[in-house]
Backbone:
């Protein structure tokens, strides 16, 4: 009987030991998880690329799940505000636009990454966006996906190009003349802008205004008036595509060849150009008396204050900001500028590479302005004022006069914080 009991105890101990090993093994091999919410890569093909080509390889190599989602800047900020106020932090990493970064640092919702960045010796972030990514000498955001404005031309437009015009040194006056020539020759306009409210028109106009020495946003300065007159000339000639009021993204009408001329976001230019580079020419944005104006933006990664997975978040951001990964992201999402100097050396001769090189030239030699959304109570309302000017005057019956612009400027001033 004692032998039986002893045998049973041995079996029990072995079973307990095995159970303990299994528990430890499960705990050891259990997958970690990061929650990552981004305002960048909202286009379906961009999101798919990021998930399949960037995130999945990292998950497999590091035995981790990355819960990735897309939301607007405001939606992300509001969600994190609730998490911070409740003390229940469920998001680890966010991506915000440069115009929104001051709100994040002012609220104290993101972590200081200065020492983390100093420990990485193989990458140098562009200084251009330091005023947004830093506060009081500390770095809170790691830049990704910079953008400027470029000109995309369908080769069908070449027969209407004004005599003597150099495409790589196009002026805004040249652009307007070209648009007028096309409208007269074709019987309809071929210039594309985003006519649906709350999209990109403010930035398209902003690029032209900066070229004349205006600020951004600026409606009624003498310099801004010169820019408005360029666009008014195009409007008076019925130079915009007939469906301009329905354009949400310039990509679609340019791909369909409904539009032949457009000055827009370099990554969107890259998307169209790469679809059939034999049909298009990529050039810098047009210039004015002061140079090439452009509204330049960048997004940035940040770790949410109170993240329960800080070390894993740092490890993931180290991966995302490597020069080769920055280049891969830029080329795979249409032609964003990788804002890491070492990444530029890895560019080749493909369609997206060419777009990035042109964008870099604009960023380095142009007159860039950021997006000062944080200075206004409602950036959407700011955009709407510019949309209204397009509908009422540029593509409507009203005339661009000082009185008209003064009234619009007053609306703009009323939105300042």
Residues:
């Amino acid at each position: 009987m004692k032998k039986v009991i002893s045998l049973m105890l041995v079996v029990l101990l072995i079973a307990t030991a095995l159970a303990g090993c299994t528990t430890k093994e499960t705990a050891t091999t259990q997958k970690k998880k990061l929650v990552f919410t981004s305002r960048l890569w909202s286009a379906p093909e961009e999101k798919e690329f990021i998930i399949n080509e960037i995130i999945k390889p990292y998950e497999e190599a590091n035995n981790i799940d990355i819960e990735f989602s897309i939301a607007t800047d405001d939606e992300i900020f509001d969600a994190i505000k609730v998490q911070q106020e409740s003390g229940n932090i469920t998001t680890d990493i966010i991506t915000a636009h440069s115009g929104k970064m001051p709100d994040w640092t002012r609220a104290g919702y993101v972590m200081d990454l200065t020492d983390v960045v100093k420990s990485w010796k193989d990458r140098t972030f562009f200084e251009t966006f330091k005023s947004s990514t830093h506060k009081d000498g500390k770095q809170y955001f790691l830049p990704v996906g910079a953008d400027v404005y470029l000109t995309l031309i369908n080769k069908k437009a070449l027969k209407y190009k004004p005599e003597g015009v150099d495409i790589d040194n196009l002026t805004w006056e040249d652009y307007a003349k070209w648009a007028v020539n096309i409208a007269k020759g074709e019987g309809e306009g071929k210039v594309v802008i985003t006519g649906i409210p709350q999209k990109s028109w403010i930035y398209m106009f902003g690029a032209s205004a900066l070229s004349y020495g205006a600020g951004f946003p600026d409606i009624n300065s003498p310099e801004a008036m010169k820019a408005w007159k360029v666009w008014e000339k195009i409007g008076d000639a019925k130079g915009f595509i007939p469906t301009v009021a329905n354009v949400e993204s310039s990509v679609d009408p340019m791909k369909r060849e409904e539009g032949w001329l457009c000055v827009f976001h370099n990554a969107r230019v890259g998307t169209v150009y790469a679809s059939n580079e034999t049909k298009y020419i990529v050039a810098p944005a047009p210039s004015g008396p002061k140079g090439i104006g452009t509204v330049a933006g960048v997004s940035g990664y940040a770790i949410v204050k109170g993240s329960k997975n800080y070390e894993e978040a740092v490890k993931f951001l180290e991966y995302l900001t490597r020069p080769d990964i920055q280049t891969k992201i830029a080329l795979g999402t249409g032609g964003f500028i990788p804002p890491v100097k070492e990444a530029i050396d890895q560019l080749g001769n493909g369609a997206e590479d060419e777009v990035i090189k042109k964008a870099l030239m604009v960023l380095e030699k142009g007159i860039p302005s950021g997006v000062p959304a944080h200075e206004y109570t409602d950036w959407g309302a700011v955009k709407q004022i510019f949309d209204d000017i397009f509908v009422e005057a540029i593509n409507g019956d009203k005339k661009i006069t000082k009185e008209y612009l003064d009234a619009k400027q007053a609306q703009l001033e009323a939105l300042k914080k």
The chain has a mean pLDDT of 93.
